[in-house]
Amino acid sequence: MTAHAFTPLFVFALTASVLLQMWLAQRHINHVRRHRSAVPAEFAGEISLSSHQRAADYTVAKTHFGMVTTIWDAILLAAFTLGGGIQWLSGLTAGWFDSAILAGVAMIALLAIANTLLTLPFSWISTFRIESAFGFNQTTPATFFTDLLKTTLIAAAIGLPLVAVVLWLMDAMGSNWWLWVWATWVGFSLLLMWIFPAWIAPLFNKFEPLPDESLRARIEALLTRCGFRAGGIFMMDGSKRSSHGNAYFTGLGAKKRIVFFDTLLKQLNGDEIEAVLAHELGHFKRRHIVKRLAWTFVLMLGMLWLLGQLKTQPWFYEGLGVHTPSTAAALVLFFLVLPVFTFLFGPIASMMSRQHEYEADAYAAEQASSSDLIRALVKLYRDNAATLTPDPLHSLFYDSHPPASLRIAALKRLG
After folding, report:
1. Which helix (H) or strand (E) holds 249?
2. Is the dihedral of CA 371, 376, 379, 385 positive or negative?
3. Which of 272, 357, 361, 372 is catalytic?
4. For 276-307, what is each residue's pLDDT tens digit?
5. I need a labelling partner for 209 at 20 to 30 A (CA). Which of 25, 27, 129, 148 fits?
6. What pLDDT is attached to residue 181?
7. Per-residue pLDDT at 5
8. Which pTM value belongs to this model?
């Protein structure tokens, strides 16, 4: 491979990726609009036409906006690479420090800041225009910028030392540096999962023990039946930012927590909440979390090995607009351009995730009630304005959960 060959290959892959995303998005918009005038028959008794049309309009608005952000992201990627952005930042920071590691950390930090500032208007529009237009946004401008500041400070406090360690390992550990970096990244990831619930999440939201005693008793009985031990059952003030409802597990070992958004607790009754929790427990009992972690770790090992092969190739740098190779430039270039070449593999991850959702639904049907889970899902589809009629091909690329009609039909068969 030469730089003269790799540059057009990258341009072709970037262009093809953007065009494919545009085509999928337009298919999705057209499909949703075609089915806007009638509620699917299987939902006709539970979801009104006005709710269905609101979900269609919300989906179209988000997808249109997603097309704009996709084009902007591609422009930024081209500017940072072929446009000389990374090369300029590398030269700038190299003049600040004698240490290559400190210069590399500074370059990566400046790149992250630049990317954040250049995409900030899109986050603002998404929050205060689209989400607000459909009645979901509860975020104030003060909360928006406070979140941004907290996120930046946490990323700097945690991420910059990690980047420094990675750059040192890449330079100091010889040809097998990628094994050392992988082991460090795995350890860091597990540590972050362990500390996140108690130390990081409370910086953004308020968590309090579930106040409904009768619901707490039902949940504890379900946990006992499922043989699951939790470090606490909490309600989170999700309504502080959005009216969307959700529930999730977080943490590792004794730090595992069950968290319900306050909005979800208002949307569902006790039977439905128990069914939703049984679904989440299904992910643990079927070892989906462990499988996903293992798969992520294996993929990262392969990616770091590939980076190890590219790190010493001049054409890799030159072909992406960097004329002064460095360890930091290799790291940044690789993870910036990787999604361009791997977008076509998206359906594989989606199919694996969907299979896990079906298995978790089946577990919920065993431990709680399939009819209760169906009612809960229908309410969540309605209240969160989730489209009931996604384009199948778009869904295959992007959706980690099965389409509503397929998921409900599977639960009815279980019932």
Report:
1. strand 247-250
2. negative
3. 361
4. 999 999 998 899 999 999 999 999 999 999 99
5. 148
6. 97
7. 93
8. 0.92
Whole-number Å distance between alpha carbons of 71 and 12: 15
Q: In whole angstroms, what separates CA 101 from the centre of its chain?
A: 29
Residue with the two structure tokens 């099965």: 402
Indicate the burial class of 252 (C-beta count within 10 angstroms; 0-12, 13-18, 19 or more): middle
Helix axes 404-414, 370-383, angle to 10 degrees: 160
Residues of the chain with pLDDT under 70: 254-255
Note the pLDDT of residue 138: 93
Contact 379, 17 (CB under 8 A): no
Rounded distance between C-alpha atoms, residue 81 and residue 309, angstroms: 20
**Crossing angle, helix 404-414 and helix 346-367, to 10 degrees?**
30
Distance, CA of 191 to CA of 193 (rounded, Å): 5
How far apart are the C-alpha atoms of 158 and 30, rounded to whole Å? 43
Question: What pLDDT score was predicted for residue 254?
Answer: 66
Burial class (CB in 10 A: 0-12, 13-18, 19+), 121: exposed
Helix or strand (DSSP H, E) at 145 = helix 141-172
CB 377 within 8 A of CB 32: no
- HSE-up of 160 (CA within 13 Å, CB side)? 18
Phi and psi, residue 11, nearest 5° = -60, -40
What one-letter code names the amino acid at 87?
Q
Tokens of 371: 């009819």
At 365, list the tokens. Answer: 């049907």
Q: Read off the tokens for 381.
A: 């589809």
Q: Which of 212, 280, 359, 399 is catalytic?
A: 280
- Alpha carbon distance 142, 299 (integer Å): 39
How far the first Cα of the chain sits from its last, in Å, is 57
Catalytic residue status for 357? no
The one-letter amino acid code at 157 reads A
Neighbours of 157 (CB within 10 A): 9
Site of tokens 């009612």: 375
Question: Cα separation of 370 and 129, whole Å?
Answer: 37
Angle at 106 between CA 72 and CA 4, to 5 degrees: 55
* 3 state SS of 236: strand
Residues facing 236 on adjacent strands: 207, 261
Tens digit of each residue's pLDDT (9 = 90 or more) over 244-275? 988 888 887 766 888 999 999 999 999 999 99
Q: Which of 375, 383, 406, 373 is nearest to 51 (CA)?
A: 383
Compute how many other C-beta atoms are within 10 angstroms of the C-beta atom of residue 50: 9
Tell me what pLDDT residue 81 has: 97
